[in-house]
Amino acid sequence: MGAVSLKIGDGTARFKRATMYSSAVNFLMLFSVITTNLFALYAFTYHTPTIHHYSNNNSYPKNISLISEKVSLILREIESSQKKLTQMEKQLLGYESIDLSRPNIAIELKQFLNHHLLPLGKDSRTGITEMVASVGHSCEKSVDLLSEFMNYKVNGLCPDDWSLGQKLILRGCEPLPRRRCFAKAIPKLGFQSFPISLWKNVSEKSFSWSGLGCKNLACLNIKKLNRDCAGCFDIVKGYETQKYVKGRSKNDFLIDDVLAMVVGGGGIRIGFDIGGGSGTFAARMAERNVTIVTATLNVDAPFNEFIASRGLFPLYLSLDHRFPFQDNVFDLVHAANGLDVGGRSEKLEFLMFDIDRVLRTGGLFWLDNFYCSSDDKKSALTRLIERFGYKKLKWVVGEKVNGAGKSEVYLSAVLQKPVRV
Fold first, then answer.
1. Which of 53, 90, 123, 157 is deepest in the core (most CB within 10 A)?
2. Per-residue model confidence (pLDDT) at position 98
3. What pLDDT is recorded for position 404?
4. Can you say whether the dihedral through the CA atoms of 174, 134, 347, 92 is positive or negative?
């Protein structure tokens, strides 16, 4: 995504909406190279004979000066081209200026984006002299919503607008700016101690239902919220009680079978679940003394609050965000259809490289019932996985019949990250 430079000497952050295509950068680079070479060819072929011809007439210093001027002109052209390229790169990335001087911009947004000098001056380790607020560059595209999000009473209660914040995240405005207000307090009713909490429902009053179509668990359990969550909030009598311990098809791998594939290396101790629904994968792993962090948003349901109510670790994060973990920290990464990023091959590559980054050598990548909408999609994913050189411990392509009676193709795999030198 790239770093965002917030240049706020006048109290404004610098962003600008992209207006040109990437081909323009290639054209400008080609033009700069051709221009530079023409100047060089002209200076060092045409004028060299002139210097030789007039050298006996005391004109040598004069012609040296002429060549110096030509070289200076070439250098200025190169510098100018570099500045233009930098400017165009900023435009193509989609930012240059958020105009905070426009009407109806929240004062808190201006306050948050202002630079803050370090109290002790320059930091000797990093060389920085001021702290710059972190905010996603795509926020410029939704600056009105961003200003609405930052319009609140300082030291008061935050507006009941978590759905507005999530809308901004889904539009690429991530990370969101921090706020100086108190979040709505929700009582903990019916909470159980761990591990009883893994399979016990709590009071529905413990969740925030604002901005959601459903207002209770019964409503959620009759809806197919996504391919990995159909009735997934029924953790007492529903299929969630059988997932990962009893399979319904050859694509459904069992947790104990997968854990048995690990030989040495400390086994599986800590893992990361991408798009983990209501947290059942993390719950089954917790029963086996494995800690799982589950990344999810609250799309159409209070996923994060529900996962937390089970005594598990939810991470409120979109898949466009770089995972906030150090390299090589997880023994296992589990992903199902949360891996689907809309069919853009480049976007999937970025995601896969980040998964590989946080997975330790010898760790497992478990791709669980990934829906292959077409042969092309399956082939593209297969080629991408093969580029990483993972060892295929288990690889199953199978069919399932959907609710409409149509057969669909799914891919499940357990892959082991190789040693790279």
1. 90
2. 65
3. 74
4. positive
The segments of the chain whose pLDDT lies below 50 read 1-22, 46-55, 92-96
| 308: enclosing H helix or E strand | helix 303-309
Question: How many residues are recorded in the chain?
Answer: 421
Contacts of 386 (CB under 8 A, 6+ apart): none
Return d(Cα 81, Cα 282) in angstroms, integer.
53
Instruction: Give the other-Cβ count within 10 Å of 351's Cβ.
Output: 20
Q: Please, what's the b/e burial string for 302-313 (b: 16 or more CB within 10 A of its CB; e: otherwise)?
A: bbbbbbbbbbbe
Instruction: Please answer whether residues 146 and 139 qualify as being in contact, where contact means their C-beta atoms are separated by less than 8 angstroms.
Output: yes
> C-alpha angle 290/295/298, rounded to 5°?
135
How far CA 171 is from CA of 165, 227, 398, in Å, comes to 10, 22, 34
Domain 196-416 falls under CATH 3.40.640.10 = no
Omega before 418 within 30 of 0, i.e. cis:
no
Q: What are phi and psi of 334, to 5 degrees?
A: -115, 130
DSSP β-ladder status, 270-274 and 229-230: unpaired
State the Cα angle at 178 between 175 and 182, rounded to 5°: 135
